[in-house]
């Protein structure tokens, strides 16, 4: 079982083996956490992402961390919320699970996640938190996972899901 803890802050400040980026399927710089990660990692990140030729929804791909204090960045494309009947829960679970697999394959012990899909992609926060927490906790690996909530509402929602 992976170990899970929660902090509020900016994921670009996380010092450890890996951070996860809530990217888009094109792996071309977007807004939100993706924009913040690209700004902090530097322009080499965009060049590396373009060489990956995109990332299907629910999958996860790896680049170096460049100027960030992590070895690797794991880019995953979250589902865009429509009404919940377009496999959004399964796709979000895949994002967490595939990101954790990439972390293990790359010999990471510490990895930080943002709240995937709950920003621009509109996934209802409480539903997304439950999926994130259960997928991380049920993942069989000796990993230390930190959820980095950017705002207080996200922090509270993850806290609730972790206590449930
Ligand atoms: P998505 O398109 O997957 O919804 P967003 O980047 O719009 O991705 O939002 C995902 C979450 O990341 C939101 O909770 C947003 O507030 C948060 N976020 C934005 N910037 C940062 C950051 N620097 N560190 C951590 N989380 C961030």
From TrEMBL:
Listed InterPro entries: Macro_dom, Macro_dom-like
Protein name: Macro domain protein
Location of the Macro domain: 1-164
Superkingdom: Bacteria
PROSITE patterns: MACRO (PS51154)
PANTHER family assigned to the protein according to its UniProt record, in alphabetical order: GANGLIOSIDE INDUCED DIFFERENTIATION ASSOCIATED PROTEIN 2-RELATED, MACRO DOMAIN-CONTAINING PROTEIN
NCBIfam families listed in its UniProt record: PRK00431.1-6
Coiled coil: none
């Amino acid at each position: 079982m992976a170990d899970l803890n929660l902090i509020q802050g900016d994921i670009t400040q996380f010092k450890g083996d890996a951070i996860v980026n809530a990217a888009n399927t094109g792996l071309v710089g977007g807004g939100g956490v993706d924009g913040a990660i690209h700004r902090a990692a530097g322009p080499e990140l965009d060049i590396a992402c373009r060489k990956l030729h995109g990332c299907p929804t629910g999958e996860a791909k790896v680049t170096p961390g460049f100027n960030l204090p992590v070895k690797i960045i794991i880019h995953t494309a979250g589902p865009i919320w429509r009404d919940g009947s377009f496999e959004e829960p399964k796709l979000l679970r895949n994002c967490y699970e595939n990101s954790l697999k990439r972390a293990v394959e790359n010999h990471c012990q510490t990895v930080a996640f943002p709240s995937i899909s709950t920003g621009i992609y509109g996934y209802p926060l409480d539903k997304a938190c439950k999926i994130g927490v259960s997928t991380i906790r049920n993942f069989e690996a000796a990993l230390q996972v930190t959820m980095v909530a950017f705002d207080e509402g996200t922090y509270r929602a993850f806290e609730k899901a972790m206590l449930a």
